[in-house]
């Protein structure tokens, strides 16, 4: 079946990205993996390549497009090469929509030119120790000063991807107490400058997978945030977060599909090259059947991911549809990558093989952006259950 989501521009971008990965990432990726993060100057290279500006208006230095299809190509090409672009995905997929949706013209002039070049890398800080999926339960506070010039931010966040290198972080904090009939009320969003006094990055977290993506704990002690850095209106933060969750969940779904597709490619190459009992592993019926079953699952995930992509670009992807795509694609990727690792035998357990890294990287897909259990709850609710 011929895919219809991409055009010539997307395929030209794919060629550029593939060549960039081969030249700039693959030769040094083992060093990134050992260091536990991509180097800061790598993001300047992505800025020069135009990756950060695709969906940014031209007046701020971007390409002025309004599509997620170039991001989709990035997911496919990084997975195909068995690499990861560090915290850059959060910069574009998570942070940019909030800037475009909520920032005033003055804020956009201040934020977006540096966003496009990579001079200012952004992250999103929602999760706190002890809250997880319960965003409304956050304890971080931002209190308006008596003179009304700034907010005073206190609290802590954890699992913040891109948190080590971030220059600005969209921090979710309570500006008001929750209402008895609405515990989601009272959360606001702030574009916090990480150089602010009282802002500190704790330990870089030691993760099972996504080793080249810096994930950190953040702490705020009496951090002064100018009122000019409030994003949107006070106390409406939870509503804003809900608006952007479908695009975040699409990103996880599409990334998982791309990982599953890459896993089949890695396994196919391996079994054709590896010999057991005097014959290529690919010649055994079990190998053929396993890979055929994996390919069928990848085909199905591709269809779901593409459909969600088209709906997202059309502004029609609902919360339930995004949850369904995330649930399906992440569960498929879990099964496919596990079976493809099995076909590698003992070598599949070695980090020098991309399938091993992919196995570890993939596991978080069923946790972050809302767990699989949360996705099922959202789908069930949409069914009237």
TrEMBL record:
Residues 7-119 form the Acyl-CoA dehydrogenase/oxidase N-terminal domain. Residues 235-383 form the Acyl-CoA dehydrogenase/oxidase C-terminal domain. The keyword Flavoprotein applies. Keywords: FAD, Flavoprotein, Oxidoreductase. Residues 123-223 form the Acyl-CoA oxidase/dehydrogenase middle domain. Its cofactor is FAD. Belongs to the acyl-CoA dehydrogenase family. This is Acyl-CoA dehydrogenase family protein.
């Amino acid at each position: 079946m011929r895919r219809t989501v991409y055009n010539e521009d997307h395929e030209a971008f794919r060629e550029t990205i593939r060549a960039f990965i081969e030249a700039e990432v693959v030769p040094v990726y083992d060093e990134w993996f050992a260091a536990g993060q991509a180097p800061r100057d790598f993001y300047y290279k992505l800025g020069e390549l135009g990756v950060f500006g695709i969906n940014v208006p031209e007046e701020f230095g971007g390409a002025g497009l309004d599509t997620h299809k170039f991001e989709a190509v990035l997911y496919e090409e990084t997975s195909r090469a068995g690499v990861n672009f560090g915290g850059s995905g959060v910069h574009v997929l998570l942070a940019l929509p909030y800037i475009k949706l909520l920032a005033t013209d003055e804020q956009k002039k201040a934020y977006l030119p540096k966003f496009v070049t990579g001079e200012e890398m952004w992250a999103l800080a929602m999760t706190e120790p002890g809250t997880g999926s319960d965003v409304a339960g956050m304890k971080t506070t931002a209190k308006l000063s008596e003179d009304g010039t700034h907010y005073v931010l206190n609290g802590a966040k954890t699992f913040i991807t891109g948190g080590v290198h971030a220059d600005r972080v969209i921090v979710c904090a309570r500006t008001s107490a929750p209402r008895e009939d609405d515990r989601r009320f009272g959360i606001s969003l702030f574009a916090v400058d990480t150089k602010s006094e009282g802002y500190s990055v704790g330990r870089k977290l030691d993760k099972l997978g996504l080793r080249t993506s810096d994930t950190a704990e953040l702490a705020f002690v009496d951090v002064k945030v100018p009122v000019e850095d409030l994003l949107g209106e006070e106390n409406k933060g939870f509503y804003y977060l809900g608006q952007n969750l479908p695009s975040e969940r699409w990103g996880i779904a599409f990334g998982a599909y791309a990982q599953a597709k890459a896993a089949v490619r890695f396994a196919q190459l391996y079994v054709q090259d590896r010999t057991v009992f005097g014959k290529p592993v690919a010649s055994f019926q079990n190998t053929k059947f396993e890979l055929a079953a994996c390919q069928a699952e990848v085909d199905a995930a591709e269809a779901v991911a593409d459909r969600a992509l088209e709906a997202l670009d059309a502004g029609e992807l609902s919360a339930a549809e995004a949850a369904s795509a995330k649930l399906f694609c992440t569960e498929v990727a879990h099964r496919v990558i596990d079976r493809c690792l099995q076909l590698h035998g003992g070598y599949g357990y070695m980090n020098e093989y991309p399938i091993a890294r992919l196995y570890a990287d993939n596991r978080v897909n069923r946790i972050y952006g809302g767990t699989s259990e949360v996705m099922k709850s959202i789908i069930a609710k949409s069914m009237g259950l």
